[in-house]
Amino acid sequence: MKQARSLARINGRILNAYSQRTTTALRAALPLRLALPHLEPVLTLNVIKEVRKDTLVILRARESAANEHADWSAVLAELLQATREIDRGFLARVGAFPVEIVIRYDEITPIRARRMKLLYDATRQMLDIEHRQRRLRAAMHANFSREELEQLLYELFRLYADETRSLSRSVRLPRLLVPLRELIAQELLNVMLRVARPLAGEIAAAAFRPMTGPVAPRPDLAP
Q: 186 CB contacts (<8 Å, ≥6 apart)?
């Protein structure tokens, strides 16, 4: 369980780095700069929600890593129900701001399910019985090349961005910005994808950088 909790903490730092870089990029992008005062509280609370959700997935994957016949459909149903509880907490916290938001489950559930499956499978690979006595970095190296890790991270970021776009389409905006709602949501997605690729590459490079030598891995990104 120690490995799983370490992986969840690393995942949390990665998601926070992604959120911070996204917000920095949004400040330079019109019309997002105009909408940012209304989007930023949602984005800040959303990353907290996603870290909690991913932690559930990682811990559940660790529990089932010893069972190669684990029923994903049953696991998915449990996880989706648990994430709705997290959503309720998220909506309650958003309610403290002058912002209204509705979670469109018809849009979000398929995206969320794909992202959870990707994270669940990757976690099971790294935390199966064969790798439980290894350090987390060694288990990751045994399962992924640098290129594969970069692509995995990018896909996780892309699905995170898709779900965030759906949330942004439900944020209450000032009347003057309402006609720009779809444009704002699409530009938010574009910005998040532009941030995703270089960040995924940076994290993968840090994860495969030797631990010894003149340059140590960045502690906020490296497993």
A: 165
Peptide bond into 31 cis (omega under 30): yes
SS3 assignment, position 170: coil
CB distance 167 to 101 below 8 Å:
yes
From CA 73, how far away is CA 1, in angstroms rounded? 23
Model's pTM, two decimal places? 0.86
pLDDT in the model for residue 30? 66
Low-confidence ranges of the chain (pLDDT < 70): 30-31, 66-68, 98-99, 129-134, 174, 176, 178, 211-223
Name the phi and psi angles at 83, rounded to 5: -70, -25
* 151 token code pair: 């692509």
pLDDT (0 to 100) of residue 112 = 96
Q: In 65-135, where does DSSP find H-type helix?
A: 72-94, 105-126
**How many angstroms separate the Cα of 71 from the Cα of each of 68, 123, 192?**
9, 16, 33
Number of C-beta neighbours around residue 104 at 10 A:
13
